[in-house]
């Protein structure tokens, strides 16, 4: 599939990690046991997740190598990365490839093309494209191979496993996320957070400072395409997180009613119901999202077991149809709000939920991983909240979540469930 170096890595690295896991993973690292759902639908990513021992060893090796690469780099190189000379430009490169559907063109025509062939199929400038592909190779998005032909030796480009995620229609695609992160309104909001919000005595979000209103109000004020792109990005994130939840969350039974609060088009709900054929569910979101959600549930073949309901989680009177749910999921919701609003959301769900109903909160939980890179992503996301969300939105520790639940009136029975990804449950 990829260049020789990638094929070797795909053979040797998993074997090395498995050997290390067998040697000390299960003995010295905290491991979960995993959950096998009653049905694995075609295309499910659940079987692709590594076992807990392999996962733990792999992320620790990655953390070790990342740490060594960082501490051995010259200070000016490290600062260049921090300032964005590497990180920001890398985002621009990934976005350019995704925007012009270059990964899709490579995959659709044999999986290995020259610069000229890619340029002809995408309508891009071959000389400029060559520079982008050279950068993409250094970033690990593409791999090159020298092949002989009648006209001499030529270089072809193939997608790596990371580059595959920039394609439009592959399972787990992050194309929409890459496109959204490169939008000017996202950059303007995060720049304003550092320039204005940081010094304000009465701070407002970077988004407000840059655009004159908060993100959702801005979306609803004539920025429909940006809102749709945001929803597609959340759908992409949902696939990754939902897979991790299915692999390690133990449901109350095989027959339950699952409610995804602010669940967008219903990506998570669809995945849950596809793995649990006897379960039912509701996706609850803004009224304007409901038509697209119903269409998505129909496309996924679960419309007979799932419905989309419009409402407002700050108004419990709009949530009455959710009373029959056994499980409520807040996936990447609480971190968008300050403590006051978070407690209000939690209280409304407690009012609506029947006796014995379960509440799942899926979010970054700060300080729960010994892996430096995991905690770095959470810290970066916390800063991103200052740019994109109303003041008070933030990433929280386990103690923060327990305090919110306590103030919302939930019993002291909560526990943290580790997942094989960045988020926890």
Taken as a percent bin, the fraction of beta residues is 5-15%
Structural class from helices and strands?
Answer: alpha/beta
Spatial ordering of strands, largest sheet: 5-4-3-6-7
**Element order, helices and strands?**
HHHHHHHEEHHHHHHEHEHEEHEEHEH
- The chain-level mean pLDDT equals 87
Helical fraction equals: 40-55%
Number of strands: 9
Distance between the termini: 35 Å
Shape: globular
Q: Give the uncertain stretches in residue-range form.
A: 1-11, 21-29
Oligomeric state of the chains?
single chain
Radius of gyration (Å) = 23 Å
- Biggest sheet descriptor: 5 strands, parallel
Number of helices: 18
Which descriptors apply to this entry?
425 residues; alpha/beta; 5-stranded parallel sheet; two-stranded antiparallel sheet; 18 helices; disordered N terminus
Structure description:
Helix 4 (about 85-100) packs across helix 7 (about 125-140), helix 6 packs across helix 7 and helix 13 packs parallel to helix 14. The radius of gyration is 23 Å and the shape is globular. The strands form three sheets. A five-stranded parallel beta sheet has the order 5-4-3-6-7, covered by helices on one side. It has a two-stranded antiparallel sheet with strand order 1-2. Strands 8-9 form a two-stranded parallel ribbon. The protein is built from 18 helices and nine strands. The protein has about 425 residues and is α/β, with parallel strands linked by helices.
